[in-house]
Design a protein that fits this description.
Distance between the termini: 73 Å
Helix content: 25-40%
CATH architecture of one domain: 3-Layer(aba) Sandwich
Radius of gyration: 24 Å
Oligomer: single chain
């Protein structure tokens, strides 16, 4: 017997329809590439998203055709989120921090038909467009009068001219909720990147889950600043959850420095911000230097890589901002866990609460997880045993686009399929998961594992250290030994010997790095993650002391 309820497919278009009807006057504020501040409402987003859909119809694009974006966080990008997916096409967010050849490879692999880009990235598009074999139309995200005359890109049109000729009346089509909505390529640390292909259903379920009180706790009372790029896993789903709840959105555009972010938080009364540790580090340094305070910011979610304890302490103790640790990955749309306390933790001493907050958190309903040993045997949730982290759920990939890399899933003894994340983790008795490393970044020294994250966190706690990355270096006796690569804070000094001494008493003697290497900058990926593969390449000729 089936239930007797209406069967309405879960479609992205329903989000913008709802926002227009029930939160039509809620604001979207964007710092534009041009430098000025742009303001409008969800009602305006909805009208212009329909114009986007009409423009794609006029081009005779088919359902499932890919429309690529190469853009910052801003209002035009948001319109494409809804106009492309809502009309049955697939939004493909490209990462502008990749090399031109990589972008061309991805665009060809995705078979992108249209490519919309911010003017910041014009030189980048000029460098690769000749290699793109499928793109029929390039669209510059600018006003008609800002379009360069001699771009060298055939048929280049301004976004405003492209959608401006179209009607804002459009009837969103209805289709199966499992239809593809958007795609995002993995960072491709080895070989070519692979694409996660999200569905309307997975996107809406993820948007519901992200808004839950124990997750991001989003509401119509919030002003949200997504610092995490919209080209990175759809900004962690925030644009969808914001439309669902009617939250004000504040987009930073290309200005990602500490000063610009701080000014936007204050001027727009931002209550909630989401980003990666590297951006927050710049924000904190700006605030500390100027003796500044937050007047409205109450909480921030930090993901992408492990958040140093010193950063959590600074936000919490110095500025009264609650830090929510999150974990996920492209293959998970991306949210998997978020770290909020349970009722029984509220009366714990501050240092005990901190121990919990340092973990990546509890599974969100919709995601299940487990840790397994080398034989695939499930390990206990005791906070001690660590193993490979496996996940499953309705917004976790089943396979990659075009079947790249074969079937990624692993069957357990009951025939249930799990996705191996590539992370090594522990899970405690309360279900809090803590990443101890990426499986490829674990340092195995003398048969014992050393967590590079722990080594990095100690280094970053030193007042002179801005950023630290720990990698393993070959050792003739111990197989591998850790070294820590450090960027000093401007105007601060610390020697290698001083920093190594700083480790004493904070970790086991054998886990203390063998050396400190000072660099001007640590290579970062698009989401602020440290690129350890690049770091290893930079230090390929490095020899450990006394070897």
């Amino acid at each position: 017997m089936l239930g007797l309820m209406q069967n309405q497919p879960l479609l992205i278009s329903s989000l913008i329809d709802f926002a227009e009807r029930h939160h039509g006057d809620a604001e979207i504020v964007s710092r534009r590439v041009e430098g000025d501040i742009h303001r409008y409402t969800y009602k305006d987003v909805a009208a212009r998203a329909r114009q986007v859909a009409n423009a794609l119809d006029a081009m005779k694009l088919q359902q499932g055709d890919r429309v690529a974006t190469l853009a910052w966080n801003g209002y035009r990008h948001l319109e494409l989120y809804f106009g492309v997916s809502g009309s049955g096409r697939v939004l493909h967010t490209l990462n502008p921090r990749l090399a031109p050849d990589q972008i061309a490879w991805i665009a060809n692999h995705a078979e992108d038909q249209v490519l919309c880009f911010d003017m910041t990235f014009l030189p980048l598009v000029q460098a690769f467009h000749g290699k793109c074999t499928t793109v029929k139309q390039y669209v510059a995200l600018c006003d008609a009068d800002k379009l360069p005359q001699d771009s060298g890109i055939p048929g280049l049109i301004s976004y405003e001219a492209w959608i401006g000729a179209q009607s804002s009346t459009y009837h969103w089509p209805s289709f199966d909720e499992n239809t593809a909505s958007s795609m995002c390529y993995t960072s491709g640390t080895t070989g070519h990147p692979k694409a996660a292909l999200y569905s309307h259903r997975s996107t809406l379920l993820h948007a519901y889950a992200a808004a839950l009180p124990d997750v991001m706790c989003l509401s119509a009372r919030d002003a949200i600043l997504p610092v995490v790029p919209m080209f990175h896993v759809n900004a962690w789903g925030i644009p969808y959850s914001a439309a669902m709840t009617g939250a004000k959105l504040v987009f930073p555009g290309p200005a990602m420095d500490g000063k610009s972010i701080y000014e936007l938080i204050e001027s727009e009364k931002v209550s909630y911000a989401a980003g990666v540790p590297t951006v927050w580090q710049m924000l904190l340094m700006h605030m500390q230097a100027g003796g500044l305070r937050f007047s409205t910011l109450k909480r921030t979610v930090i993901g992408g890589s492990a958040c140093p304890p010193a950063m959590i302490t600074a936000f919490n103790d110095d500025y009264g901002v609650e830090v929510l640790h999150a974990w996920g990955m492209t293959e998970m749309s991306p949210l998997g866990t978020l770290c909020t306390l349970k009722n029984k933790h509220l009366d714990l001493p501050a240092d005990e609460k901190m121990k919990i907050r340092l973990k990546q958190g509890r599974a969100i309903f919709g995601v299940d997880m487990k840790i397994v040993d080398a034989d695939g045997k499930e390990l206990p949730w005791d906070g001690v045993a660590f193993g490979d982290l496996y996940v499953k759920g309705p917004w976790v990939v089943r396979e990659y686009f075009k079947g790249e890399g074969g079937n990624p899933l692993v069957k357990d003894d009951n025939g249930v399929e799990w996705f191996p994340t590539g992370d090594v983790a522990t899970i405690d008795a309360d279900g809090y998961m803590q990443i101890t490393d990426r499986s490829k970044d674990v340092i195995k020294s003398g048969g014992e594992w050393i967590s590079s994250i722990d080594i990095e966190n100690i280094a970053v706690a030193h007042p002179a250290v801005a950023m630290a990355a720990c990698i393993g270096i070959h050792h003739p006796k111990w197989d591998e030994r850790p070294i820590v690569v450090v960027v000093k804070k401007p105007g601060m000094e610390v020697t290698a010997a001083e920093l190594l001494k700083f480790y004493e008493g904070k970790t086991a003697k054998w886990q203390i790095p063998d050396d400190v290497v000072f660099v001007d900058a640590i290579p970062l990926g698009a989401t602020g993650k440290m690129l350890k593969t690049r770091l290893r390449e930079m230090l390929k000729d490095y020899k450990l002391p006394n070897t």
